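Fig. S4 source data, part A: sequence.
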Amino acid sequence: MDSKIEYTRLHRYIKTLGPVYGHFLYWLESLGIQKTIPIWYGSDKYWIRLNTTDIHVLYTIFIRQDYKMNILSEPSLIIDAGAYTGFSSIYFSQKYPKAKIIAIEPMPSNFALLKKNILNYPQIKAINKALWFENTRIDMADRETGHWGYAILEEKNLKLKNIISVETITMDNIIQEFDINMIDLLKVDIEGSEKEVFQHHKTWIGSVDTIAIELHDRIKEGCSAAFIIATRSFTFDRKNAMTVFKSRKGIV
């Protein structure tokens, strides 16, 4: 592996877990160990998988704080679409302790860890489905970029491996099932599926106040275009390295 990539990975372990513990886990990875282990971040115990993208996600959320924002009023209801192993939902729960959070994650292996990681967060409701524009089952395939890289299988990508069939859920389903009047914060990181979700926005976008999204035009063309059209009524916007924020009331 490239030495720069290795240094970056070691840096993430050290910055997230401290020099001693970080070096130790990096050393375990260097031995080729692939297992799920408990770690302690602050006073919380989380579960991560060695030699996966888990440490990168933990680092970007808690250390780099990719979802750091200032919302004018504290959210009561948050939807975390593409919740992975639960770190983003936990981050929001810690920042907004009064909020109810709906965490949506389609991949079984990620969802199993999500359930373990949120055991001490009863305000987080986990749903093992993929956010999509219709109710159906879809095939998701491994893009070979890590556990976070599963995306909906398209005709042009039929050679991709590790195909998994998952059940879908729509924004309208969520609003109806949980009797939602307003989604104060919608976080979206769904590997290109945002294109279709936001192309079919008319029935639900009026119920959303603030959005934090990672757009994946590199995976599927048209993601940004669909998002821009759907959020034309949102007045305030901001970007960081990976996330686009849009709000009706304002983000500072």
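Fig. S4 source data, part B ends here. The helical segments are 3-17, 19-30, 54-63, 87-95, 108-117, 171-177, 194-199, 223-230.
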